Amino acid sequence: MTSRVPPHPDRADITLQGVLEALVDPVRRSIVAQLHLATDPISCGHFDIPVARSTATHHFNVLREAGLIRQHYAGTSRMNTLRRDDIDELLPGLLDACARDHQAQTPA
Amino acid sequence: MTSRVPPHPDRADITLQGVLEALVDPVRRSIVAQLHLATDPISCGHFDIPVARSTATHHFNVLREAGLIRQHYAGTSRMNTLRRDDIDELLPGLLDACARDHQAQTPA
């Protein structure tokens, strides 16, 4: 099933520019925050985001290509995990900041 | 001379969204990195940035309005300092990440 896994950048190819471009979008920041606050992988269909499925797919692609998330298949579901170590190496504090911001904007 | 000092947002009005929008631009990130690597305030005319003066003024305004820099006058020079404490509270690690990225891209 390896061929179904989309390409991911190597650690050395993750740039601050790419990460900032990805996270300047609030929907993408929300996806990252939800992953950071979760303990398990989340399938593309199970995020709480206010966009259509096709738009969501675009956002997941941007996040994957920027090096923020890894995607793999579990059956027919495309699962998402954070590349925590890679992000922390580039910008420690970023994931916590996204999560704090997300929680402050999400009604309890 | 207080009236010549442009307005700055309060700490509570600095948002992650605004900071990311400001720093997604490489020239603005370079300004922030140069300030982070410097010990003293830097006047608007003394940054190493590849843009015309009028464009630079726009970038300084964006950074000030996002809460990343403070500006004050020294004679006729508009001086810039980082709002380190405010930035560190919002996203610790950000300034160092910008500086590392800047240094990696700047020929020695």
TrEMBL record, chains A, B:
<dbReference type="GO" id="GO:0003677">
    <property type="term" value="F:DNA binding"/>
</dbReference>
<dbReference type="InterPro" id="IPR001845">
    <property type="entry name" value="HTH_ArsR_DNA-bd_dom"/>
</dbReference>
<dbReference type="InterPro" id="IPR036390">
    <property type="entry name" value="WH_DNA-bd_sf"/>
</dbReference>
<dbReference type="GO" id="GO:0003700">
    <property type="term" value="F:DNA-binding transcription factor activity"/>
</dbReference>
<dbReference type="InterPro" id="IPR011991">
    <property type="entry name" value="ArsR-like_HTH"/>
</dbReference>
<dbReference type="InterPro" id="IPR036388">
    <property type="entry name" value="WH-like_DNA-bd_sf"/>
</dbReference>
<protein>
    <submittedName>
        <fullName>DNA-binding transcriptional ArsR family regulator</fullName>
    </submittedName>
</protein>
<keyword id="KW-0238">DNA-binding</keyword>
<feature type="domain" description="HTH arsR-type">
    <location>
        <begin position="8"/>
        <end position="102"/>
    </location>
</feature>
<dbReference type="Pfam" id="PF12840">
    <property type="entry name" value="HTH_20"/>
</dbReference>
